From TrEMBL:
Pathway: Carbohydrate degradation. GO terms for molecular function: D-ribulose-phosphate 3-epimerase activity; metal ion binding. Its EC number is 5.1.3.1. PROSITE patterns: RIBUL_P_3_EPIMER_1, RIBUL_P_3_EPIMER_2. GO terms for biological process: pentose catabolic process; pentose-phosphate shunt. GO terms for cellular component: cytoplasm. It catalyses: D-ribulose 5-phosphate = D-xylulose 5-phosphate. It is an enzyme of class 5 (isomerase). Binds 1 divalent metal cation per subunit. Substrate binds at residues 7, 65, 141-144, 174-176, 196-197. This is Ribulose-phosphate 3-epimerase.
Length: 215
């Protein structure tokens, strides 16, 4: 059974409290919070005030995904804004080990994301320090993109590395996740499925989350 992390980026921001409370009542495990700075990715989402507002009403853990340059500058602020899991991008962190250790020192679970072009082998030296690895199945920056098929192979390879090393970090997938590919993602080793527009644009988000969770 998969963990589900609906992406609040796809919510109705004119009714943010309502949508957070809907997720509270759902079978979702986390609320995925996408932070974009317009520099690392070609889009700007929101920052600390919105994250704090989400946390004020959320009863689910906040899974905060930092698609930003120099994330070390803001780790403590996002911890204070409610992050239980903090994901930084491998591509944005020249001193990744130091960044991961800082996240742990802040009392938050460290997670590292890989863009579609980045091989999973690039994390081989730091996997024992991670609670989660996020595989991007679209190019980061915008919701509603088409799923990249090579993602299955990357997840499978990462799962093999996890088993060979005897580790227990979670494998999360973000981008284009729906009922057509969820089962194959889980079969290849994914533990956590991030879904944004697929959940919030559905006629019944509660049922959609419940169906995804069955995979």
């Amino acid at each position: 059974m998969a963990f589900i992390a609906p992406s609040i980026l796809a919510a109705d921001f004119a009714n943010l409290q309502r949508d957070v409370e809907m997720l509270n009542e759902s079978e979702a495990d986390y609320i995925h919070v996408d932070i974009m700075d317009g520099m690392f990715v070609p889009n700007i989402s929101f920052g600390f005030p919105v994250c704090e507002a989400i946390n004020r009403y959320a009863t689910k853990l906040l899974d905060v995904h930092l698609m930003i340059e120099q994330p070390d500058r803001y780790l403590e602020k996002f911890r204070d804004a409610g992050a239980a899991i903090l994901t930084v991008h491998y591509e944005a962190c020249p001193h990744l080990h130091r960044t991961v250790q800082l996240i742990r020192e802040l009392g938050v679970l460290p997670s590292v994301a890989l863009n579609p072009h980045t091989p999973v082998e690039m994390l081989s030296e730091i996997l024992p320090d991670l609670s989660q690895v996020l595989i991007m199945s679209v190019n980061p920056g915008f919701g509603g993109q088409k799923f990249i098929e090579n993602t299955y192979r990357k997840i499978y390879k990462l799962n093999c590395m996890r088993e060979e090393l005897g580790l227990d970090f979670k494998i999360e997938v973000d981008g284009g996740v729906n009922n057509d590919n969820a089962r194959f993602l889980v079969e290849n080793g994914a533990d956590v499925l991030v879904a944004g527009s697929f959940v919030f644009n559905s006629t019944n988000p509660l049922e959609t989350i419940a169906e995804l969770r069955k995979n």
